[in-house]
UniProtKB/TrEMBL annotation:
InterPro entries: CHCH, CHCHD4
Organism of this sequence: Aldrovandia affinis
Pfam families: CHCH (PF06747)
Protein name per the record: CHCH domain-containing protein
Compartment list: Mitochondrion intermembrane space
Domain of life per record: Eukaryota
Length: 161
C-alpha cells in the first residue's frame, strides 16, 4: 500500500513494487529562478549582479565595497560602444580607496615581490646575451672591478688573489 506523509518541508512517499512497475505520471515543477537557495553565478537570471557570488572574492564588502559595487554596476550596465568607458571615474575612485588599504587589497606587483622575497629587477640586472656555439665568450668586467684582459688567466686576476 502506497502512502505519503509530510515532515516539515519534506514530503515522504512510500511506494510498493507494483507502483514501480507502472511508468510514472509525475509532473516536474520548473525551477524557481528566485529561489534563494539555488546557486547562481555572477549574473542572476534577471540580469542583475549577484553580489553574494563567491567569485567576487569578498570585493563587494569591506571598506571599498561600495566603490567596487558602483564601478562594477556601471560597467555591467554600460551601453557605451567601448563598454565601461563611461565608468572611468568610478573605477579611479575604487582604485584610490583600495590604495588606502594596502593590507586588505595588495596590488599584483606587491604580491609578486613579497612572495618571491627578491628585490625588483633593475636595468643593470639584464640577462647576459647568448653566444654562438662557435664563438668564444667575450670577457666583461663588472662596473667596480679592474678591466679584464684576455691575456690574464682567470686564476691570476687581482680580484682572486
Amino acid at each position: 500500500m502506497s502512502y505519503c506523509r509530510e515532515e516539515g518541508k519534506d514530503r515522504i512517499i512510500f511506494v510498493t513494487k507494483e507502483d514501480h512497475a507502472v511508468p510514472s505520471n509525475a509532473e516536474l515543477v520548473a525551477e524557481d529562478p528566485d529561489d534563494p537557495y539555488e546557486e547562481h553565478g555572477l549574473i542572476l537570471p534577471s540580469g542583475d549582479i549577484n553580489w553574494n557570488c563567491p567569485c567576487l572574492g569578498g570585493m563587494a564588502s569591506g571598506p571599498c565595497g561600495e566603490p567596487f559595487k558602483s564601478a562594477f554596476s556601471c560597467f555591467h550596465y554600460s551601453k557605451e560602444d567601448m563598454k565601461g568607458s563611461d565608468c572611468l571615474e568610478l573605477f579611479r575612485g575604487m582604485q584610490e580607496c583600495m590604495q588606502r588599504y594596502p593590507e586588505l587589497y595588495p596590488q599584483e606587483d606587491d604580491k609578486e615581490s613579497s612572495s618571491s622575497g627578491d628585490a625588483p629587477e633593475t636595468e643593470s640586472s639584464a640577462p647576459a646575451p647568448a653566444h654562438d656555439q662557435d664563438s668564444a665568450p667575450v670577457p666583461v668586467s663588472a662596473p667596480d672591478s679592474p678591466p679584464v684582459s684576455e691575456d690574464t688567466p682567470a686564476g691570476d686576476s687581482p680580484a682572486n688573489g
